[in-house]
TrEMBL record:
This is Phosphoribosyl-ATP pyrophosphatase. Pathway: Amino-acid biosynthesis; L-histidine biosynthesis; L-histidine from 5-phospho-alpha-D-ribose 1-diphosphate: step 2/9. It comes from the Archaea. Its EC number is 3.6.1.31. The gene is hisE.
Length: 99
């Protein structure tokens, strides 16, 4: 995947980080990151979206695979933001594994 293709993930992650640092009432991201719910709500969504992605792949439904994988990636980005892990951290680990 070319760097230009990754820009949307960076943009979405930046919005998630902005919501984390500057909560907006009514924001879905903010509702996931609320302190009273803790990380559990985020992890529940990651698990739910992972299961839905698996089922889409099992059904060999390309449109659903794309849709559910997008949901999964979004919720993984929220999880990373919640735990203080950056996309750069992930990128560095992926680069390390290539060598």
């Amino acid at each position: 995947m070319a760097d230009a293709d990754m820009s949307v993930l960076n943009e979405v992650f930046d919005v998630i980080m902005d919501r984390k640092n500057n909560p907006v009432e009514g924001s879905y991201v903010c509702s996931l990151l609320e302190h009273r719910k803790g990380i559990n709500k985020v992890l529940e969504k990651v698990g739910e979206e992972a299961a839905e992605t698996i089922l889409a792949v099992k059904d060999n439904d390309k449109k659903e695979i794309i849709y559910e994988t997008s949901d999964l990636l979004f919720h993984l980005l929220v999880m990373l933001a919640a735990t203080g892990v950056s996309l750069e951290d992930i990128s560095e680990e992926m680069k390390r594994r290539r060598h």
